[in-house]
Design goal:
Blueprint (H helix, E strand, L loop, with lengths): L8 H4 L8 H14 L8 E6 L2 E8 L2 H15 L4 E7 L1
Parallel strand pairs: 2-3
Antiparallel strand pairs: 1-2
Helix pairs in contact: 2-3
Pfam families: BON
Protein name: BON domain-containing protein
Length: about 90
């Protein structure tokens, strides 16, 4: 028996490879944590339909914009929604 992750049609059409939801989330989290110019320790990444949703807090205004740019680099510009707040 083979288990497969659920994928969404809208997101997968923008990917070169058909990623599962878990691997997409992990890719965004990894990219955020690897970025030297963003404190992503309080950012939670979730998947809602075809969208990657960034929730949580950032300390600086520039981190807000940069976190969105990083996520867009992974899944595409039209597939990132932000619910982050600045502390």
């Amino acid at each position: 028996m083979v288990f497969r992750f659920q994928t969404t049609e809208g997101h997968c059409s923008t990917c070169e490879q058909g990623h599962g939801l878990a691997s997409t989330r992990a890719s965004v989290e990894s990219a955020l944590s690897a970025a030297y110019d963003v404190d992503s320790s309080e950012i939670v990444v979730s998947i809602l339909g075809p969208y990657v949703v960034l929730e949580g807090f950032v300390r600086q205004k520039g981190h807000f914009k940069r976190a969105v740019e990083i996520a867009e680099g992974v899944v595409g510009k039209d597939y990132v929604r932000s619910r982050m707040l600045r502390r």
